[in-house]
């Protein structure tokens, strides 16, 4: 099905946000808002958000990608991911205004964009948000980073011949060894208290009644850190047990899904999940009778 794109300009607490809405001809009840993570604008790394928005729109889900305040073409000062609830709300409003049949949205986020989506729910409890798609969520703390490095990074370094050659030749500096010992100390410190943003993310997930698609890249340290942290944090254990989470590990994938095969696989998973959870369009519902049979 053909996809068209429309530039949108909309207000966010006195600043001007710029976005691009991808749609097809279907009268959809469910749209998608891409929450961009990190110092990134609406196109994404290797134009991934452009390709993703078009793919989801082609599957029948109008998809808005936009620049938060202070990024890309939007006005205002740069915002931390913990402070973009107003931006997300404004984007949902803009999507619904442009596509009036859309009654509910799925928030899709990468890295701290995924974290921001959960924090938006915790702050706003917006009933229009019907689903979440979270790719490599950001839950970093000093302790979680240290544990991830000890489990996944340093063992590979210690098994590498080049490391020992550098160590014996004096090219491994005292500062590098100090970082290793500091990571070991943090990893085994027994400190598991999470910064408030992590606790709020877990609370939002535990309370969210809708379906959640959790995508984790196999080779990404942010994803590994998420797994390590959530396995050791009681609040996250409860949240993941309560929520309607479908978890999928993407083999050989990096943080931003830069490989063509991985990108296609992830898009296929997302399209299938969206169709399964939010299949009906306005046109389909109009054709349904009260008993769930086709109207004649």
How would you concisely characterize the structure shown here?
45% of the residues lie in helices and 19% in strands. It has eleven helices and eight strands.
Structure description:
The chain has 296 residues and is α/β, with parallel strands linked by helices. It folds into 2 domains: 4-141 and 194-286, Rossmann fold; 144-193. Helices cover 45% and strands 19% of the residues. The protein has 11 helices and 8 strands. The protein has helices at residues 48-58, 85-98, 112-124, 142-158, 161-169, 174-187, 196-207, 221-232, 234-242, 260-277, 282-286; strands at residues 4-12, 15-23, 30-35, 63-66, 104-110, 129-135, 211-217, 244-250. The protein has an 8-stranded mixed beta sheet with strand order 1-2-4-3-5-6-7-8, sandwiched between helices. Helix 3 packs across helix 7 (196-207). It is globular and about 55 Å long. The protein starts with a strand and ends in a 10-residue tail after the last helix. The model has no long low-confidence stretch (mean pLDDT 85).
Record the SSE blueprint.
Elements (H helix, E strand, L loop, with lengths): L3 E9 L2 E9 L6 E6 L12 H11 L4 E4 L18 H14 L5 E7 L1 H13 L4 E7 L6 H17 L2 H9 L4 H14 L8 H12 L3 E7 L3 H12 L1 H9 L1 E7 L9 H18 L4 H5 L10
Parallel strand pairs: 3-4, 3-5, 5-6, 6-7, 7-8
Antiparallel strand pairs: 1-2, 2-4
Helix pairs in contact: 1-10, 2-3, 3-7, 4-6, 4-8, 7-9, 8-9
Give a count of the beta strands, DSSP E runs of length 2 or more.
8
CATH topology term of the largest domain: Rossmann fold
Main beta sheet: strand number and arrangement? 8 strands, mixed
In order across it, which strands form the biggest sheet?
Answer: 1-2-4-3-5-6-7-8
Structural class: alpha/beta
As for the number of domains, it is 2
Strand content: 15-25%
Query: Distance between the terminal alpha carbons, to the nearest Å?
Result: 27 Å
CATH architecture of the largest domain: 3-Layer(aba) Sandwich
Name the helicity range: 40-55%
Radius of gyration: 21 Å
């Amino acid at each position: 099905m053909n996809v068209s794109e429309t530039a949108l300009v909309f207000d966010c607490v006195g600043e001007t946000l710029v976005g691009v809405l991808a749609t097809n001809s279907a009268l959809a009840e469910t749209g998608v808002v891409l929450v961009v993570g990190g110092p990134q604008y609406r196109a994404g790394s290797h134009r991934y958000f452009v390709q993703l928005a078009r793919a989801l729109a082609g599957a029948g889900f109008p998809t808005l990608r936009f620049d938060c305040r202070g990024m890309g073409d939007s006005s205002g000062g740069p915002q931390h991911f913990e402070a973009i609830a107003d931006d997300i709300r404004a984007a949902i409003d803009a999507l619904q205004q442009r596509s009036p049949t859309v009654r509910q949205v799925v928030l899709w986020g990468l890295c701290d964009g995924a974290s921001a989506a959960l924090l938006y729910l915790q702050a706003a409890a917006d009933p229009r948000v019907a689903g979440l798609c979270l790719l490599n969520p950001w839950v970093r703390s000093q302790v979680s980073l240290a544990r991830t490095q000890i489990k996944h990074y340093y063992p590979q370094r210690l098994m590498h011949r080049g490391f020992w050659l550098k160590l014996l030749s004096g090219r491994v500096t005292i500062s590098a060894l100090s970082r290793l010992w500091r990571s070991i100390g943090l990893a085994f410190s027994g400190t598991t208290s999470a910064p408030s943003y992590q606790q709020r993310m877990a609370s939002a997930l535990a309370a969210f009644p809708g379906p959640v698609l959790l995508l984790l890249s196999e080779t990404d340290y942010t994803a590994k850190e998420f797994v390590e942290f959530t396995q050791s944090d009681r609040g996250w254990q409860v949240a993941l047990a309560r929520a309607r989470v479908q978890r999928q590990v993407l083999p050989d994938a990096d943080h931003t899904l830069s490989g063509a095969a991985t990108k296609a696989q992830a898009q296929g998973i997302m399209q299938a999940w969206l169709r399964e959870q939010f299949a009906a369009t306005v046109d389909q519902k109009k054709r349904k009778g009260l008993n769930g049979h086709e109207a004649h």
